[in-house]
Every structure is written in structure tokens, then in C-alpha cells.
Amino acid sequence: MKCFASLTCAVLFVPLVWGCPGGLSNPEDFIGGGATPKDAETVLAQSCGTMGCHDDSPQAQAGLDLLSPNVDTRLVDVYATGEGCESDIFVVAGDPDGSFLLDKVLNTPGICGLPMPVVGTLAVSDVETLRQWIIDLDSSDAGTPDGG
Prior knowledge:
Elements: H1 2-18, H2 40-47, H3 72-75, H4 100-106, H5 124-137
């Protein structure tokens, strides 16, 4: 009788521990590990738009706000302001290799000023997001006030 009671408890307890497999009504939300890809604004805001760096305060480094929306208006076809960097353009639409922003992020030898971020590095996926964003800017009207 004792054995029967133990077996009954085990049969009832095992499904509670393992649960039932069930199903998802939205499996597409979990493809790729459930991580939502970041866009360039998010990468810049989370990695560079932090307090004491390029936030939206008047004390932002180099006066550059990378936290507020529409960051492209502050980067595309805009010259850097750091001493000795005045001939560098932050983002050249369609040209990631000619964009000072990527040189800073990749810590390209001979860059003007400090690399970004000052401590650590961006994830490869974040750098690729920025690179693709710059490439995609070439097919938009970003950075051309007259639309042409």
C-alpha cells in the first residue's frame, strides 16, 4: 500500500514539476532569442547618451546630444567641434568609412580626440547597426534640408 501511495504521488507530482509543453500564440516574438534589434538612435542613446557624456544636458561633451530623438539632424553632414577635428564630418550619408562617428567607435588609429565610448567598446552588432544606418541614410533625404 505504501508503494502504491508513493507511485500515485510521483505520477501526480511529475507533471507539476515539468509543466505542460503548451504553445505560443506569438512565436514570432521569440525568434532570434526574443531580443529586439536596436536601431541606431537606440544604440547611440544607450551607449553614448549617458550622463556626463553626450546626454541632452547643456554640459554634454562637445555640446553633442546623442540622447534626444532625431539624432541624425545633429550628426549627418555636421562637422566635429573638437580641437583639431573640425575637418571631420560625424556622419557622411552612405559612407560609413568616411564617417568620423565610426572612426571614434572603432578607435581607428590616428583619430582625433578620444575613442567612443571612452571605457569599453560597443558590441559588434551595435557597430554593425550604426554602419548599416549610415549606409541607409544615402537612400533618404536625411541631411539635405532642401530634400534634394
